[in-house]
Amino acid sequence: VVHRIGVIGGDGIGPEVVAEGLKVIAAAGVDLETVDYDLGGARYERDGTVLPDELL
């Protein structure tokens, strides 16, 4: 069974923590498909949106 999850790296140390967590899941042998989402403070500073309607 392939599990599909959304990944939101976030800001600050978030991207590093998420990347390491995904490595742990892969090492555990979980069949995982990820979908990355660009959400968080950096996005808001870049274009003024936090959660665009097209992602809902």
Automatic annotation (TrEMBL):
Family matches, as Gene3D superfamilies: Isopropylmalate Dehydrogenase
Bilayer-crossing regions: none
One Pfam family recorded for the sequence: Iso_dh
Annotated ranges, domain Isopropylmalate dehydrogenase-like: 5-54
Protein name: Isopropylmalate dehydrogenase-like domain-containing protein
Species annotation: marine metagenome
